[in-house]
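Hi R.,

Here's the chain you asked about this morning:
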Amino acid sequence: MESFKAFLKKKNVEISLKRYGIDALGAMAQGLFCSLLIGTIINTLGTLFHIPFLTTPVATVSGIEYTVGGLAMAMSGPAMAAAIGYALQAPPLVLFSLITVGFASNALGGAGGPLAVLFVAIITAEAGKLISKETRVDILVTPLVTIGVGVLLSALFAPALGRLASGVGSIIMWATELQPFLMGILVSVVVGIALTLPISSAAICAALGLTGLAGGAAVAGCCAQMVGFAVMSFRENGWGGLVSQGIGTSMLQMPNIIKNPRIWIGPTLASAITGPLATCLFRLQMNGAAINSGMGTCGFCGQIGIFQGWLADIEAGTKTGITAMDWAGLFLICFVLPAVLAPLINMGCRRLGWIKDGDLKLS
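And here is the predicted structure, written out as tokens:
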């Protein structure tokens, strides 16, 4: 047993929640960002500003035409798997072999492809690391084992994992349609908290395919955390803190939350208010890529996703146009209300003596 543990340590195989649930999950979101999300943004820019290079097909593969953005979107599986391998510190031959594995698991996983990629890529990367440089023909053995294990796992488990993720996401979206007030609170608060924790809310939303009203509630929760922390900590952190938290990530506040969890009350209560407003009053829906549901105001991806959804709905004929109510809901839920509610709640916490000057200062 001790020799096996020593072998795992030598191969840098660390079975832990941090490595798989934080490092790998966060890397998967980055892979999605650099493929699916960027691809959809490129397509939207091309459509909005009528840029021929971005709207004209630049490649045809098996009869399917791809634009620049389409090519990026098509590579989401390989990008996720490679990102996961990088986070797990996979050797080069393992890392490059994961590109094939990511394509297979994402394709076989269907709508729940991201969850399938996460599961398959983690196991495959670790298997590849175990065999890496153990033979004199490493350049043949490592890719063969890595791709063989990955494709086999994809064939065996990816369809079921995809259906599971899709099913859970569908239940959440169905429940949100059925009970928009209660689910608006629940989804907004939970996804918002996930965004601030050192895990990836974007990857969770992508894995579950969280769109529609539930996606709108998720955006509301993320924005409440990011904009809420940014504005209520402005006097401690200035403009730099406003930008880094407001369009970067509220995760920067985690060290302060650990020291004083009460600083989390303002943004979390704000999300409990904006979530049901998004679902019940404004009917704010995320009909763009599901990853946008967990992005909030990070690079304004949440807002871009909602806007992309509007355009898609108009093109599909399910929406006649973008209304003033749509724009009002977007700006109030994503920016105005979090910037007002979180600081007001935080002010009440200060008066109760729960929060003091410096508690929100970024190091």
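One quick note: Residues 2-165 form one domain.

Cheers,
M.
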